[in-house]
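All the exercises in this workshop are built on plain-text protein records. Sequence and backbone structure share a record, each on its own labelled line. The question running through the whole workshop is how a given chain folds. The record below serves as our worked example for the rest of this section.
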Amino acid sequence: MKKSAVYIVANSDNTQDNAFIDHGTSGAYNFIVTTQRAILGQTGTGSYTTNVTEQFRLISGIKDAAGLSLFLDGIANGTLATTGTLGQDEIFNIGVNHGGAYDLEGNIAEIIVYRNAHTATEKEKIESYLAIKYGITVSHDYLSGDGAMLWDSSALSVYHNNIAGIGRDNCQALYQKQSKSIIAGSIPAIYLGDQTGGLPATSFSNTATIANDKSFMLWGSNGAATTYTGTYPSNTFVDIMERTWLVQESGTVGTVTIVPDDADAQVLLVDADGDFTDGNSIEILLENGMTTYDFADGDYFTFGTLTCKETSTLVCDASVSVNLTAYVWGYQFGGFWTETTSSGVDLSDPTAVDFE
């Protein structure tokens, strides 16, 4: 077998040279892919530019007539010039080195092996499938199984960070219903459907449906800080996060549930052009740390936190109770209400305060 392609989603729990796959026994037909290199028979070793460590990564290897090309998350990660032939009826070990040393200490999510080499476009289709499935950001365009553009890496370069997505692609048997970028600190997890009654533990257990094949929703961030120091003049009660996200939708995905992994996020802000300073953003208060929304293709979103307290002087009728919470924008039930004027008024129920 002179040509082949292999795709591996995995990580390593240590910094040693651990084997992901080991095809064959020692000799000219041996093919090993590890956390640090690829070995092809006795002809040589192709060391990675970047090794695989704790974070799950997508490792790809394309063996053609010119040699072996290695990729990490879609980025070129080493080469090995050889015309060696791979064995066809050899043992295929997963996570085990046939030599007995450096067996994998880590996790393998998925391995795909083909008996032929792949073109650049074919490789990007498969890497896009795996990237959407596992929340991995790859360096290139995201393509559907039939080659349709889902995310243009050049046109959307500012937002080509922390990419994740959901979608349905029948030709790849892909039906991803919830996702979050695997990169630490990525903030939003998004679930297909209205899941405010209880978040599904897995994509498989999510009972919401995407009606049409080739429907996707991908989102990526501008990579800015996650501090709430952004400008938002249309509402003085809200400070917004510097980081914003862009949505790309193909087909129809419908309503989703947005769950930010940030205790300070209290408001979802959606804007059609990404300008959150012009007063045209949609404001949605989170309840129990989540909310629902039906994004349009090209929408931008970010999160806000409620930072201001309002001081108001009310003229009260002694015969009518007052709902103090109506004077607090985005009030969420709970907290502490304190009477500071020694009037003796009862604030145990701030929704019905009787000044009589």
Remarks:
- The two ends are 90 Å apart (CA to CA).
